[in-house]
Write a structure and sequence with these properties.
mainly alpha, 72% helix
C-alpha cells in the first residue's frame, strides 16, 4: 500500500546517509566482490574470445582515422565472438545482482534494532531467493537493453521498476504486480523520487573524485536511497515471508 502523506525529502536523504554510513564495511565488501569478479570475467572472456587482441589491433590500425576506427569497432561488435563475450558479461551481471538484496536485509534489521549477521549480506543468494532475483534481473536487463538507446524509455524503465526489488523482498510481490505499484508511487510522489534518484546517482559515482578509490564506498549508495524511499512511500505487507529466508 502506498502512503498518502507526503514524505520529507530531507528525512529520506538523512536516512539514506545513515544506512550507508552504518554499513560502510559491507559497502566496501560489495564493491570489492562486484568489481573483482566483473573485471576477472572481462579479462578472461576478452582473451578467450579474442576480443582483446582484435580491439588492440583496431586501435593500432586506425590511430589517426576516427571514422575507420568507429566502423571497425562496429564490425567487431557484430561478430559472433563479441556476441559470445556479451552473453558471458550478461550472465556475470545477472549472477552478481543478488548482492544488492543483502543491503535491504541489513537496513531492515537496523530499523528493528536487530543484530546484523554476516550471512544477512548474502540474503539474495539464500534458497529460492537466488532464482527469483536472477530471473528478475535477466528480465529487467533485456528490456533495458532495448529501451536504453532511446534514453527516455530507458530512464522510464528504470523509474517504473525502482521499487520492484524491495517490494518483492519485503512484500512478496510478483514482478508484474510491482509495476503498477511503482507507477502509482511515481504519480503521487514523483518529485521526491526524482530528486532522490538524481542525488543518489551523483553520490554513487562521486567516489571517482576521491582518488578513484572512493568509488568502492559510494558505488552501492543507490541501495540505501531506494530503501529510504521505499520505507517512506510504502506500507509493508504483513504477509511477507521473503525477509525470513
Amino acid at each position: 500500500m502506498i502512503q498518502s502523506n507526503k514524505p520529507s525529502l530531507d528525512l529520506i536523504f538523512r536516512q539514506a546517509l545513515t544506512y550507508w554510513k552504518r554499513t560502510l564495511v559491507y559497502q566496501l565488501l560489495f564493491s570489492l566482490i562486484f568489481i573483482s569478479v566483473l573485471f576477472s570475467v572481462v579479462y578472461y572472456a576478452a582473451n578467450q574470445f579474442g576480443i582483446y587482441d582484435q580491439y588492440i589491433t583496431i586501435l593500432q590500425k586506425n590511430s589517426r582515422d576516427m571514422t575507420s576506427l568507429q566502423k571497425d569497432i562496429q564490425d567487431l561488435t557484430k561478430s559472433s565472438n563479441y556476441m559470445s563475450f556479451s552473453w558471458v558479461m550478461i550472465a556475470t551481471m545477472v549472477f552478481l545482482f543478488p548482492l544488492n538484496i543483502g543491503f535491504f536485509k541489513l537496513y531492515k534489521k537496523m530499523d528493528l534494532n536487530e543484530e546484523i549477521r554476516f550471512q544477512d549480506f548474502f540474503s539474495g543468494y539464500s534458497g529460492i531467493n537466488f532464482f527469483i532475483y536472477i530471473s528478475y534481473y535477466l528480465f529487467w536487463f533485456m528490456v533495458y537493453s532495448y529501451t536504453m538507446p532511446t534514453i527516455i524509455f530507458g530512464i522510464l524503465w528504470v523509474m517504473i521498476t525502482l521499487f520492484t526489488t524491495p517490494l518483492m523482498f519485503f512484500d512478496n510481490k510478483k514482478i508484474f504486480e510491482t509495476l503498477s505499484l511503482n507507477f502509482q508511487a511515481m504519480k503521487q510522489h514523483f518529485l521526491v523520487i526524482f530528486v532522490g534518484v538524481i542525488s543518489a546517482f551523483f553520490i554513487k559515482y562521486s567516489g571517482f573524485l576521491i582518488f578513484g578509490f572512493g568509488i568502492l564506498f559510494t558505488y552501492p549508495f543507490f541501495n540505501a536511497m531506494i530503501y529510504a524511499l521505499y520505507k517512506n512511500i510504502f506500507v509493508e505487507s504483513k504477509t511477507s515471508s521473503q525477509t525470513q529466508s
